[in-house]
Design goal:
- By secondary structure, this protein is of the alpha/beta class.
- The strands form 2 sheets. A 6-stranded parallel beta sheet has the order 2-1-3-4-5-11, sandwiched between helices. It has a 6-stranded mixed beta sheet with strand order 7-6-8-9-10-12, with helices on both faces.
- Strand 6, helix 9 and strand 7 form a beta-alpha-beta unit.
- The N and C termini lie far apart (about 80 Å).
- Bound molecules: alpha-D-ribofuranose.
Length: about 325
């Protein structure tokens, strides 16, 4: 196994020069850099990252804790995180909690035992336990997608769920809907609560009665089940707001199962878009979150926090983007 000394001898430079080239940790003239890179190739030298990490007390790895690896919204967040981590020379350790807070505590502890330099977490519920574990370990933490219970208490990068849902509520009111419903995720998930609140505020600002609000678990099955319940009501809601992508698909399945049509019988709007490469005919009117940008910005904030651990926490709130398609239908007859 070639050593730094073998490379230095072959390149005719000092071992310090080799170390600077390998670790990008200091000035090296282009001429010497070329000689060192040639010698690295010829000797097949592989840096010993464990030894280097012992010296630098860094592992050049970051952890990402996410609640549902099957959801395309989260996979696009991961795409943004992984790309930014790679550009920064970091390895990403990805874990999935299946929306279970107890599982989140377990995987966060495992990532901390592996000495990650920083942690990104999309909390399954509240972020208090994860924040405590990271603080005790002295590891910077950035919360992604879901706001912490206490505003301003911790770094967070998220999309404006409330604003996106508000826009969809205003859209349905502008189309003439008067009796509407919202189906959302668990009451302990901040994005589920914020979306219901934004939608409800918009609808009531337009003078409509408060919308029916049902809490499920952000799954397709839950969307189907809640919509079957809504369609039995008399009067039946003329429009449904689904607070995430899976709920919207479940709503469509239920409406069609009942022999009804979207939007002719029930208008449908959703938060989160479905990736264009997964949908044959984009149909759903959505407020979409900038998932990949959310991931990239979260890594940038984490790197900043690693460098400046004492700086005050920041919140980065990204706007959603409204795309109107066929599922919200035409204005109702007056
Ligand atoms: O699909 C799960 C939802 O909860 C997504 O919309 C995401 O924003 C998360 O908070």
């Amino acid at each position: 196994m070639a050593t730094v000394l073998d490379v230095a001898k072959r390149a005719g430079v000092s071992p310090m020069t080799v170390s600077r080239v390998v670790n990008s940790s200091g000035p090296v003239s282009p001429k010497l850099r070329t000689r060192v890179e040639k010698a690295l190739k010829e000797t097949g030298y592989v840096p010993n990252s464990v030894a280097r990490n012992l010296r630098t007390k860094r592992t050049d790895t970051i952890g990402l804790v996410m609640p549902d690896i099957t959801n395309p919204f989260f996979t696009h967040v991961v795409r943004g995180v992984e790309g930014a981590a790679r550009d920064a020379g970091l390895l990403l350790l990805l874990t999935n909690t299946d929306q279970r807070p107890d599982e989140e505590a377990r995987v966060v502890s495992m990532l901390l035992q592996r000495q990650v330099d920083g942690m990104l977490a999309i909390p399954a519920g509240t972020c208090a336990e994860t924040a405590r574990l990271c603080k005790d370990a002295g590891v910077p933490l950035v919360i992604v997608d879901r706001r912490p219970e206490t505003p301003g208490s911790i770094d967070v990068v998220r999309a404006d769920s409330e604003g996106g849902a508000y826009e969809l509520g205003k859209l349905l009111a502008s189309l003439g809907h008067r009796y509407v419903a919202a189906i959302t995720g668990p009451a302990y998930v901040p994005t589920a609560v914020d979306r219901a609140a934004g939608f409800s505020q918009a609808v009531q600002e337009e003078g409509l009665p408060p919308p029916i609000i049902l809490h499920g678990d952000f799954s397709l099955e839950s969307g189907h089940e809640m919509t079957m319940e809504l369609m039995k009501l008399d009067p039946r809601p003329t429009a449904v707001f689904a607070a995430n992508n899976f709920l919207a698909i479940g709503t469509q399945h239920a409406v069609e199962e009942l022999g009804l049509r979207v939007p002719e019988d029930v208008a449908l709007v959703g938060l989160d878009d479905l990736p264009a490469d997964m949908v044959t005919f984009p149909f759903l009117t959505v407020a979409a979150q900038p998932a990949e940008e959310m991931g990239r910005r979260a890594v940038a904030l984490l790197l900043k926090r690693i460098k400046e651990p004492g700086a005050p926490p920041e919140e980065i709130l990204l706007p959603t983007e409204l795309t109107i398609r066929r599922s919200s239908g035409d204005p109702l007859p007056v």
